[in-house]
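Data card: per-record layout.
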Amino acid sequence: MKIRLLHGYKYESVDGYTCSTGIVRRGITDQAISHPYMHLDKNGVLEIFPGYAWDGSTCSFDKNSLRASLVHDALYQLMREGLLDKKYRKQADQLYRDMLIEDGLWKSHAWVRYWALRNFAGGGIKPEKKPRGKIIEIGE
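The structure for this 140-residue chain is written out next.
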């Protein structure tokens, strides 16, 4: 039997989450994006399935950032895996900022986090050289 040991994650979605991202893709070749842990349709509706794990906001933990970090991490993962064009990074960052404000974070704090994303988080969409987690074999 193989088991994947996940490290680097803080949270796991129990119920899943669905929201509109504003990332509308209308090109002839654009298709819905299906992933084992999420689905993004052509109209920008993102469905994150139960069991999705993410690491939350890098800069701090507060209840105001959980929903925003869930959606932002999912979108960055789609870009990192080459399923969503990297041109949508700014839109993902703006959505993060807007969700922070909707969930009660002070606007000034949300804008500082947005600025940090725009200036320092570009590496988050680059393909990972080493996948998170380690596969081990147990038993026979």
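Known properties of this structure: The chain has three helices and eight strands. The chain has one domain: 2-130.

See the next section for split statistics.
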